[in-house]
Each structure stands twice: as C-alpha cells, then as structure tokens.
Design the sequence.
C-alpha cells in the first residue's frame, strides 16, 4: 500500500532553476567576479548537484583568473553561496516561482487521505521553506513529516543518501513510498534507495533518459487526461499514483 510520497524540489515541485541561475549570476556580480552562467552552461553544470559543489566544479574546470586562491576557496564559495541563497529566497518570496501544475492539488489530497509527505532535495533548507511558505501558506513546512535537504547528507544526489535519510525520518520501508523526481541524478538517487519513482520532465531535463522509472510524464497533470480541477484533480492524481504503485506490487 502506498503510504508516503517523497518529493524532489527543484524541477519537480516547481521550475526553480532559472531563479537559481539568476541568483548565482547576481551573487557573482556582487562578488566582483566576471562570471555569467548562460542557459547552455547552466544545463551542463546541473550535472553537479548542490550550489557550492557547482561553483567548485566551474572553478576547477574553467580556472577563471579571478577565482580565489585554492587555500581560501572553500570558505569563499561558502560565503558566496550564503548570498546566493538570500537572493534566491528573495526571488521566490517575490513570487517569481510557482508550483508546477497539479502539485498543490496532489499535496492537499494526500494530506486529506492520510498519505504521508516528505521531501528529499539537494537544495538548501531556506530555499525549500521559501517555496513552500510562499506558494502554500505559513504552515506548509508542517505538511511534510520529513524534509531531507542540502548539507544534511554528505553525498548529494545521485548518491541515495538524501532519500535514505527521508525514509529513516518517515520510519518506512522504501517500497511503501513513491518518489517524484525530474532528473537522472534524482532518479538514480531514489532508485539507489530502493524507492519506486515517477518522473516529471522539467525544462532542464527534458532530453534525459529515465531508465528504471515507474512512469515518465511531461507534467504531473498529464496523469489525468480529462478536464478536472481543484480537489477533484488532486484526488484523481493520487488515485493514479496509487495505481502505479500497486502495479509494482502485482509485478513482484
Ligand atoms: C537541485 C540542485 C540544487 C539547486 C541549487 O537538484 O542541484 O543545487 O540547483 O540549490 P535536485 P543550492 O532537484 O536534484 O535536488 O544552491 O541551495 O544547492
Ligand atoms: Mg530536481
């Protein structure tokens, strides 16, 4: 029986990466480095999960002349990333990012039907909070029994650690849950933890191959083809996810 849904954040709950990209670029400008990540470069850099790790990889690969000396680099990146997080959460709070279609309806339906909710994400906790509070209201962090985020684990996606932490916090076996993801890094992380996974493609992952996913759709809302909205949509989405989960049980 499906007991919990475990959501990725970036690309799954919302198309956040353009706001992240803007926040990185603004933080670079403020820090006085002449770096600008355009969309093709950012798409390549998204292979590295975690903002601090992404900046470190950029410096290692590009060796920009205005990068800090290697002895100071980790501290410099950490400071820059704190500023990036403040810029990003500000953009979210101003309403620049919205939940993807069907997400709010599904969360409400799951809560009303006793399906537990969790988050497993590479992004920082303040980013999760700003998105949930801005789009769902001041109590929304409390909707989720487990929020495994950012540096709570040592190894970020595609390692399974963040999903394993969410399972531990839920106290559930992997097969009682369904993960929702948008990227191969996320899919590999969830599958590595043994959690069956539904993929909703996102703007930066639409050309990825999702081997091993239970289902791959353009948008969660595509799971329901007729024109329903609100509570009805949420209930129907949950039914579809339950059916996908049950079909796995039947398969073995
Ligand atoms: C998301 C990420 C994050 C964000 C930036 O991946 O990789 O790094 O882009 O967040 P996923 P931070 O959706 O697979 O969790 O800057 O806070 O790290
Ligand atoms: Mg994602």
Sequence:
């Amino acid at each position: 029986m499906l007991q919990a849904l475990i959501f990725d954040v970036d690309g799954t709950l919302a198309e956040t990466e353009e706001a992240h990209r803007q926040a990185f670029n603004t933080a670079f400008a403020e820090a006085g480095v002449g770096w600008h990540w355009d969309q093709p470069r950012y798409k390549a850099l998204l292979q590295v999960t975690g903002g601090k790790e992404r900046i470190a990889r950029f410096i290692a690969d590009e060796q920009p002349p205005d990068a800090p000396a290697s002895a100071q680099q980790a501290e410099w990146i950490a400071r820059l990333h704190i500023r990036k997080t403040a810029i990003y959460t500000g953009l979210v709070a101003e309403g620049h990012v919205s939940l993807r279609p069907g997400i709010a309806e599904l969360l409400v339906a799951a809560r009303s039907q006793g399906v537990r909710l969790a988050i497993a994400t590479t992004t920082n906790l303040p980013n999760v909070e700003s998105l949930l509070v801005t789009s769902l209201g001041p109590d929304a962090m409390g909707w989720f029994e487990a929020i495994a985020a950012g540096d709570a684990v040592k190894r970020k996606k595609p390692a399974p650690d963040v999903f394993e932490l969410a399972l531990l916090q839920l106290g559930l076996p992997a097969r009682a849950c369904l993960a929702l993801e948008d990227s191969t890094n996320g899919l590999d992380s969830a599958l590595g933890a043994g959690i069956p996974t539904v993929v909703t493609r996102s703007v930066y992952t639409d050309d990825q191959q999702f081997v091993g996913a239970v289902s791959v759709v353009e948008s969660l809302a595509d799971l329901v083809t007729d024109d329903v909205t609100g509570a009805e949509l949420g209930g129907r989405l949950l039914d579809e996810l339950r059916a996908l989960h049950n079909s796995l049980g039947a398969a073995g």
